C-alpha cells in the first residue's frame, strides 16, 4: 500500500538562553540575544508549518544550560504549542546541555513528558519510539547524549580513566543502537535522532560550550539496518558526514554563538522520505544576526586613521552586526589610538566587542616615525631628513646638501648613453 511522503524538520542546538554579546531590549526587559535565537527558531518553525511537515525533531541542546529559567521554558513551550496547533508532532532528544550530571534528576525537557503533552515525545535514553503522524507512523530511534554516570554505576568501571569510560560508553551505546535497529519494522520509515560527536566533523565555537573530552563515535556507528536518515546535533556547523544511505547530517546550530561561527550558514534541514529506503534533505538557512571581524594594521604616522580606513572597507556589513576589531599595532604606539574616534565609525553595529590589540613581529627600523617620510621623499629630501635624524649640525648639513645638489646637477648634464669625462685615476 502506498503512503504519502513523510516530511520532517530537523532542528538542533537552539541554545535558548545564550546571551553573549547581548544587551537588554528595553521593550521586553529580556536580553536581545535571547530574542535573536528565538527569532531564528521562529523562522524555522514558520517554514516547517508552511511546508506542512509531519514531524519536527530537535536533536538536543534545546537550552543553553541544564537549568533553564522559567522565561526560557515559557518561550520554548510557546513554540511547541504552535507546532501542536498546526497538527505537527515533535520529538525532543536530550543533548549534553539538557542532561543533568546526576541520573536521578530531570532533564530540562522532561516537563513535556511529565505533563503528557500528546503531540510531544521526549527521549532521555536510547530507545525506539513509534510516532503517529498525519502521513503515517515513523520509527524514531533516539540517541541522546550519553553520560558517564550510567557507566560509573557499574562496578567493573569503578577505577577507569576518562578515556576508558568514554570507550565503554561508546561500546555500550553502539551495541544498544544496533539492537534497536535490528528490531525495527523494515516496512516503516525509520530515522535516528541523536546528539553526539562524530570523527571527521568540523567543529567551531561549540568547543567554548564545554565539549572538552567528548566521547567520539565513528561513522560506522550508524551503519544500521532499516535506517533511512540520521539527524544529529552537537556540532554547530551544518555538514553532511555521509551522503549514502543512511544520510548522516548535522543540521548545525540555529544561530551564531561566537565569532568562530561568523562565516557559517545557520538553519535547519527539511527531510523528505518519499518511500522506505530513500531519504533526501535540503538545508534551509535562516537569517541570523551577522558577526563581523575587522582586521586593522597600524602602518602610517596616524594610527587612528589606519583603523578608520580598515573599518570603512567593511561599512556595508556593519549594520546590526556583532563586531570585533583586531588592531595590529606596535606596543609603543598603542596610546596613539583614539578609541572614541574609532567607535564613532561603528555606530551602526548592534554590538562592539572590546578592541583586541595584537603586535606581530615587525622588522626594526632605526628611523621610527621618520622611516615612512624618508621612503616617500625624493633623493635630496631623503638626504635632508636623514641628516636631520642623525642630528648633523646645521652648517655641515647645508654644506653636504650643497655638494649633493652639485653632484646631481653634474649627473643630469651627461648625455644619454654618453660616458662624460674620463674618470680620474687615483693612486692609493
Ranges where pLDDT stays below 50 over 5 or more residues in a row are 419-428
CATH topology of the largest domain: Purple Acid Phosphatase, chain A, domain 2
Structural class: alpha/beta
Q: Provide the CATH top-level class of the largest domain.
A: Alpha Beta
Distance between the termini: 111 Å
Q: State which percent range the strand residues make up.
A: 15-25%
H and E string: EHEHEHEEEHHEEEEEEEEEHEHEEHHH
Order of strands in the sheet with most strands: 4-3-2-1-13-14
Describe this structure in words.
This protein folds into three domains: 6-285, Purple Acid Phosphatase, chain A, domain 2 (4-Layer Sandwich), CATH 3.60.21.10; 291-358, no CATH class; 370-412, no CATH class. It has 428 residues and is of the alpha/beta class. Helix 1 packs parallel to helix 2 (70-85), helix 8 packs antiparallel against helix 9 and helix 9 (379-389) runs antiparallel to helix 10 (394-413). Helices cover 28% and strands 22% of the residues. The strands form four sheets. Strands 4-3-2-1-13-14 form a six-stranded mixed sheet. Strands 5-6-7-10-12-11 form a six-stranded mixed sheet. Strands 15, 16, 17 and 18 form a four-stranded parallel sheet that branches. The chain is built from ten helices and 18 strands.
